[in-house]
Amino acid sequence: MPGTEPLTELDPRYSEQEATAENWREAVARLTAAEIFWLTTVRPDGRPHVTPLLAVWHDGGLHFCTGPEERKARNLRENREVVLTTGTNTLKEGCDLVVEGEAVTVRDDDRLRALADAYTDKYGKEWTFEVRDGAFLGDGGRALVFRVEPRTAFGFAKEPYGQTRWRFAPGRV
C-alpha cells in the first residue's frame, strides 16, 4: 500500500468508553475481502441513488465497473462524489465501513488488465473481462471502470461500539 497512514481518530461521542480506534490496515483487509458494496451517487436533480455492486481494492483504492448508460454512470457524468459502504447486517459483531471520495474513470489498459485480473481472482471466472479501448468488455457489454481513492473513511465497530474516522491527505492512501 503506497503512501503513509491516514490520520486516525476515535469519535468519543459515538463510541463506548472501552472502544479503541480501528486500525486502517485491518480496514483495508476488510475492504479487500468484502464481496458486496453499496454505492451512493447523486442524480442530476440532487436525489440520491444507491445500488449494490462488486468492487475490488487495488493499489490504494476501491474500483467498480458499470455500463456507460446505467444510472450510476450517468450520475457520475454530473457529480463524481460517491460513498461506498460495506459491512455486516448484524447489531453486535463486525465492523461496517464507509469510504468517501471522487470516482475517477480508469482508462489505462495496463491498469485495467490488472483490475480485470483482480476481479477474476476475487469473484471467480464468471467475472472475467477483456480490456479494450479503455474499458472492460464482458458478457454484459462494455463497462466503464472507476477508482475511488478514500478522502475520508469511517469504521463502525460493534462490541464495543466505536466510530473511527480516517482522513487522508491527497496521495496518502
Q: What can you see in these coordinates?
A:
With 173 residues, the chain is α+β, with helices and mostly antiparallel strands. The chain has one domain (26-153): Pnp Oxidase, Chain A (Roll), CATH 2.30.110. It is built from three helices and twelve strands; from the N terminus they run βαββββαββαβββββ. Strands 1, 2, 3, 4, 5, 6, 7, 8, 9, 10, 11 and 12 form a twelve-stranded antiparallel sheet that branches. It is globular, with a radius of gyration of 17 Å. InterPro entries: F420H2_bilvrd_red/Heme_oxyg, Pyridox_Oxase_N, Split_barrel_FMN-bd. Pfam families: PNPOx_N (PF01243). This is Pyridoxamine 5'-phosphate oxidase family protein. Keywords: Oxidoreductase.
Topology:
Layout lengths: L6 E4 L13 H10 L3 E6 L5 E6 L2 E3 L2 E6 L4 H8 L2 E6 L8 E12 L2 H15 L6 E3 L2 E4 L2 E8 L3 E6 L4 E6 L6
Antiparallel strand pairs: 1-12, 2-3, 2-6, 4-5, 5-10, 6-7, 7-10, 7-11, 8-9, 9-10, 11-12
Keywords: Oxidoreductase
GO molecular function: coenzyme F420 binding; oxidoreductase activity, acting on the CH-CH group of donors
InterPro entries: F420H2_bilvrd_red/Heme_oxyg, Pyridox_Oxase_N, Split_barrel_FMN-bd
